Structures are given as C-alpha cells and as structure tokens.
Amino acid sequence: MKTTTDLQRRKLLKYAALGIVGAASYPSWAQTGGFVSVNAPSADFLPDVEIELTMNTADVAILSGNKTHVWKVTGKIIKGSSDVLDNNEGTYLAPTLRLKKGQKVRLILNNNLPAQSILHWHGLHVPANMDGNPMYAVNHGETYIYEFEILNRAGTYWYHAHTHSVTARQVYSGLAGLFIVSDDQEQALKLPHGDQDVALVIQDRSFDSQNQLAYSAHMMRRMQGFLGEQILVNGRPDFVLPVATRAYRLRLLNGSNSRIYKLAWDDGTPLTVIGVDGGLLERPEQHAYVMLAPGERLELWMDFSERALGSEPTLRSLQFDVASHGGMGMMGGGMMGGGHRGMMGRGMMGGGMMSVSALPSGSDYPILKIRVAKKEQGNNTLPKVLTPITALRIKDAANAGNPKTIALSMRHMSALLNGRSYKMNDIQPDEMIPLNSLQLIEFDNGFDGGMHGMMMDMPHPMHLHGEQFQVVKREMSSRSGDSYATVSSGFIDGGWKDTVLVMPGEKVTILKPFNDFKGLFMYHCHNLEHEDMGMMRDFLIK
C-alpha cells in the first residue's frame, strides 16, 4: 500500500463532510476524465481476471414515467472471458461478477461520484487492505486497486459500498452487486445452471412523486433502520420470473438496508434450502419458512416439473411479530413493552406520530411471482448429499474456556458494541486476536436481561469480515415471550456463514477462524443505519 492507515484516516476526516453532503443531495452532475491511483498494482501479481469498475451517477427506468437518478457501478473486462461480468444494464444494480476458486483477480475501482466511497467484498476471505475498510475510501477522481486470489468455496457472495457514516445511503442509492464463486466440487454435482441458475436480489425502496429515491435520515428511522415502501427484485418492482417445467437453483440475497424477510411459498410448498452465505450445505433442508436478514444469502432448489403451464407460485414474506423487529421500551419503567405490536411499524414514538413505512415490518406481502411459461425436460434430481463440511470444535478454540462476548445495545440514541461506538484506530485489548487462531464468540442481545434505562429491543444481523464462521448454538432468555416463536423455525444455522441474525433477548455463539491475513477486519451490525450510527468495530489480527 502506498498510503498508510494514519494518512487514510486524515483523508477520511477531511472529506467526511463531502461524503455526507454528496450522498444526501443526489447531485445530477458527474465529471469524467482521468483518475489518480492511490495505490499501485503489484508487479509480481499476475491476474487471471482483470476488471475495471467505475462508480458514476446514472438515470434508470425503474417505475413508469420519469427515470430515477441512482449511483451506478459499471464494469469493463480488461482480461478474462466475457462471462465473468454482467453489467445488469437498465437497472441500478452493480455488475454481477462470476469467478472461480483459485483465480487471481485485479479489480480497478474508479470513483466518479461526487462523494468519497469504497467497496467491501462481503463474505470473501481477502487481505485486510483489499477488504474495503472505510479507511481506504477514495475521493472523486481517485482509483483504488484490489488484488486477491479467490480462496472461498463456491457460493453466493456480494459487494457493496462501505463508506464511513454513509454506507446506508450509498447502498440504497445503488452501490451493491453480486459476486458469485464456483469451484470443481460444486460443478461436479450438476446442479441447475445457465438459465436455471437465477440470482434474485431483494431490496425495499421508497420513491417520491417524481420517481426519485426517497430516503429519510430522521433519527427514529435510523434507530429502527430504514424501511422502504415497495419491494424490488433485481431492481424491478412487481417482479415476475418466467420458468420452464424443470428444476431451478434460486440464489436469494437480502440487499435491503434493514428489512428482515420471513420467506415462504404461498401454496405451502416447503422451501428446499441447499446453501447459505458461504456456499452449499452438507445436505438439503426443508423448512416451512426461512428468515433472511440484511446481508444474508440463501440458495433454494425449486422443482417446477409437475406445475401446470400458466401456474403462478408466489414467494411471500409472512407475518411475524414486530416486537421481534423494534419494540421500544423503558426497561423497568414500562413505557412500551416489547410485546406492544406495531408501535415502531406505525411510527409511534412517545407522544408524537411519525410515518415510518407503508409496508410495515412483520406484515404479509409478496416478494416475487413465478410464472410457469413453457414445457421443458431437464435433470430434476436433487442430490441427497451436497458437499462435505468439517464441523469446527469448541475444544480447538484458542479461547475455549473464555468466550469473547460482544454485547449489542441501543441506548440513548446510540448503537453500541460492548458499550462502544465506532472509532478509527481505537482497538481495545479484547479486540486483538492472534493470527491463525480459532475464536469462540458470543453475540449477546440482552440475553441476561441486565439492560436498564431507555432501550430499544432490536434484532441485529451481525456480520464479521474475513473468513466465514459456523454457528454453534442459540440461547433465548425467558423475557422473549411469544415473539420469538413467530421466527424461530426459520433460522438456517448450518454450513458456513458470515452474517447471523441475533434476536432481542438472544445469545448466539459462533466459532470463527482468523487465518492467513493480519490487519484490521471489521465486525458490525448489517442493519446499515445501525452501522452508520456506530454499531461497528475493528478486530486487529496480529
């Protein structure tokens, strides 16, 4: 790296105001021209694939009528086959990248936005200076060069803006895309591929009367997390997927800022889950519904071979208790208990009223419609065994007898981890981790009931940068009531994960390796408004 951490920190502080103002105002101008690289390509790094990505402003047709002003990433292949990149033209989505395990890739990121920005490769195991930490954000007219080898197993990963204090707004504006990895083991299974391998990015957005993206940074919306009024799939409203009478692999990403989905087929057909964040499960699992939190991915197997032509199965988000997604209470004082359904959904805060969303959290609404459009034969055999997964063992953890506890809390209009807000260069002793160690980590979301004062009971999708982890167990406190029962059967905790949903009153224990790379790796809530409020910290791997 040409620049140092301290230099980047000074630059970050200097341009913080520019980033916030630029993100908030959606200016229509964008200057083209040459870019200045803040780091140089490595002479000894020989990429198999080289792609230039440029962040720019654009106008795209989302709704009928006026085009919508967005922030759009476009890509150009410099080296590699034509199938490694799909620009998703006509939508605000960033390009879909398709790479193979073992490939070396160079990604040249040009920032032509009127604000500072940087991209994080969510779920990928890459060096610290290639991970997209906010300290490496580049300004307008600057370029950041990423170089890394694909070490991950096959899976559905993604990438998105990770700019200090404005991640939510920048992702909402369009700075996010899919990063799909394949490997030989996956390809040997002969799962549905080509047109039968479909990626589906689920997001919620709000629009004003001129079809422009509407976003509120009101403190109460930030505390809950922004909820849009319309569901978009792959950047489109009222999404319909035409299919043939054969089996499909559906890759689902919750790319929303804060909305949690409870997914189910409308006709009661079980969801057959074959993969999660970090790739395929050992074996397929069937569930009546599945929970999908911001940042999480699921892969579904769906066989349409017995469906009648013209039939239209619909994927819905089912009702669940909104006390599981933002019940505000005066703990011990009884202002509003967690069981007061709909308080946050309807926007009641104390004596005042504030409209939060026309599509409340926990309500029942359609996500996408499938239309069986043609008759076609295909291989519709689901393998009974997908991929071997070696289970991590607690006894192998470096801290097996002393788990690292991370307390999640929202107090006095602050979002905190172990009582701390995000600060750069603020590594605490309990945030230092030995390289090449396995760590036992507990996310405690009020499990012991020891909270006090003005609190908000909120679910927190916790994301850790770097290597994938495994979920060991979930534990619920007695104060959870009946709310937890409306979501508890939908957690898919097997396989490799990088994001895990921690419900109010819950403690989730994970085992996470910290191998190969030294440096700073973030951990944070993937409710993006919570992240921007400071619910984010760094581990220092040394």
Could you characterize the architecture of this molecule?
Strands 13-12-11-15-20-17-18 form a seven-stranded mixed β-sheet, with no helix packed on it. The chain has a five-stranded mixed β-sheet with strand order 1-8-6-2-3, with no helix packed on it. Mean pLDDT is 88; it is low at 1-32, 327-355 and 450-454. The protein folds into three domains: 5-187, Immunoglobulin-like; 194-374, Immunoglobulin-like (Sandwich); 394-541, Immunoglobulin-like. 9% of the residues lie in helices and 39% in strands. The longest helix has 21 residues, at 5-25. With 542 residues, the protein is mainly β. Strand 2 and strand 3 form a beta hairpin.
What's the quick description here?
By secondary structure, this protein is mainly beta.
What is the element layout, followed by pairings?
Blueprint: H1 5-25, E1 36-37, E2 49-60, E3 68-79, E4 85-86, E5 96-100, E6 104-111, E7 119-122, E8 142-149, E9 155-161, H2 167-173, E10 176-182, H3 184-187, E11 197-205, H4 219-224, E12 230-233, E13 236-237, E14 240-244, E15 247-254, E16 261-265, E17 271-276, E18 279-287, E19 290-292, E20 297-303, E21 314-317, E22 327-331, H5 343-346, E23 348-349, E24 352-353, E25 365-374, E26 404-411, E27 414-417, E28 432-433, E29 437-445, E30 453-457, E31 460-464, E32 470-476, E33 499-502, E34 506-514, E35 519-525, H6 528-533, E36 536-541
Parallel strand pairs: 1-8, 2-6, 5-10, 11-15, 14-25, 26-29, 28-36
Antiparallel strand pairs: 2-3, 4-5, 6-8, 7-9, 9-10, 11-12, 12-13, 15-20, 16-19, 16-21, 17-18, 17-20, 21-25, 22-30, 23-24, 26-27, 29-34, 31-33, 31-35, 32-34, 35-36
